[in-house]
Specification:
Blueprint (H helix, E strand, L loop, with lengths): L12 H17 L6 E9 L4 E8 L3 H13 L18 E3 L6 E5 L2 E8 L13
Parallel strand pairs: 2-5
Antiparallel strand pairs: 1-2, 3-4, 4-5
Length: 127
């Protein structure tokens, strides 16, 4: 079982904001949050990690899997290259609460869905 540890000190502000910006860009470009609404984010544990949370939509592990699958595509076929070379594609899911933790540029990021529907249950595009 993979275990991720928190850094002892908060990463520098420039690293925190760049890691967060890259994650948000990847979420948008890969359309990893279909059906999600009320997207929120905040720093946690004294700026040592960043939380991204949404209502409905896919489970956190489905979002992480979408991002990882895009990361594994050749650069010319990928929807987004913002995470290339700054995330190794590894993520850990907490089975008790469904939170997913991954690390981008030394910054732990927690993905969390509230009342998720799951990608399988989401309706297809309406247009």
């Amino acid at each position: 079982m993979a275990v991720m540890t928190l850094p002892q000190h908060a990463p520098p502000a420039a690293v925190r904001y760049e890691a967060f910006g890259r994650m948000m860009d990847a979420l948008r470009a890969t359309d990893a949050l279909p059906g999600a609404r009320q997207l929120d984010w905040w720093p946690g544990l004294g700026n040592r990690e960043m939380h991204i949370e949404w209502h409905a939509g896919p489970y956190g592990f489905e979002v992480a899997r979408t991002l990882r699958d895009d990361l594994l595509r050749p650069p010319e076929e990928a929807a987004c290259t913002a995470l290339r070379d700054v995330w190794d594609g590894v993520f850990v899911t907490n089975p008790q609460n469904g939170h997913v933790r991954l690390t981008v540029m030394t910054m732990p990021i927690v993905l969390r869905a509230l009342c998720p529907l799951g990608a399988v249950r989401l309706p297809g595009p309406s247009c």
